[in-house]
């Protein structure tokens, strides 16, 4: 019950029932469409708590139509939205194994299969090759809901393959970074992915990073901060360690905006904050310039 059928206005939980409408007392010819609207799944905006239908959110690239909050996008949705046309998906041959056999709160294979069921992905990084406004490029996106977007061996394999494919086809590489920072193997992957990015630079090809909320840990310490250009989405939290860990280490209270994209822009850590609706145009312009296409 999130959208007024006639006006299309988004309704919040505080909207009175008189404005929401009650199924059953509407004129008969509207009953069918009412039913369809009212049974559609909704997403609650974490910021303003408006209930928005999944379809409306998806059309708006998961930006809240009421308060402009940028909600998290699934990696696959993100790449399908980003490209005009996806030509191929890369790296699907790399699948998770259990090299450390460590036991956390749950054994690793159980956590892995739970993450796979939850997200429908086989790993925390999805890589695709396709066209952005006619420019062929490779792009990868972290799936945060897959064990917090942690950088394990398969993520490393897929990222390295993405860079190698970009080099072989002389195309730019774009990375949509998101990570909670956990990951037993990420130190090893930091070195591998950093070396792959260096090869991109040696080949004279652009590597752009889009920092989406949140980016922490090994991902920040390596591939997310090695781009030619760093773009962040509004209000994204970006850091290596979390606020509490740093406060405990330096024994000082830290101010609230610390680690927000806006604060990092003011301090020169990132280059630009771009609204999601302007992101495709911005990336296109930067890539066209760096590839001498415009
Ligand atoms: Zn909102």
> How many distinct domains?
2
Q: What percentage of amino acids are in beta strands?
A: 15-25%
CATH class identity of the largest domain: Alpha Beta
Determine the N-to-C terminus distance: 47 Å
Proportion of residues in helical segments: 25-40%
Task: Identify low-pLDDT runs.
Answer: 24-28
Overall mean pLDDT score? 84
Number of helices: 11
Oligomer: single chain
CATH homologous superfamily designation of the largest domain: 2-enoyl-CoA Hydratase, Chain A, domain 1
State Rg.
21 Å
Strand order across the largest sheet: 3-4-5-6-7-8-9
CATH architecture of the largest domain: Alpha-Beta Complex
Q: Which class of secondary structure composition applies to the elements?
A: alpha/beta
Descriptive overview:
With about 290 residues, the protein is an alpha/beta fold. The chain folds into two domains: about 1-70, no CATH class; about 75-290, 2-enoyl-CoA Hydratase, Chain A, domain 1, CATH 3.90.226. It is about 35% helix and about 15% strand. The strands form two sheets. A seven-stranded mixed beta sheet has the order 3-4-5-6-7-8-9, with helices on both faces. A two-stranded antiparallel ribbon has the order 1-2. α6 packs parallel to α7 (about 185-200). The radius of gyration is 21 Å and the shape is globular. It starts with 16 loop residues before the first helix and ends with a helix. About 35% of the residues are buried. Zinc ion (ZN) binds near residues 47, 48 and 64.
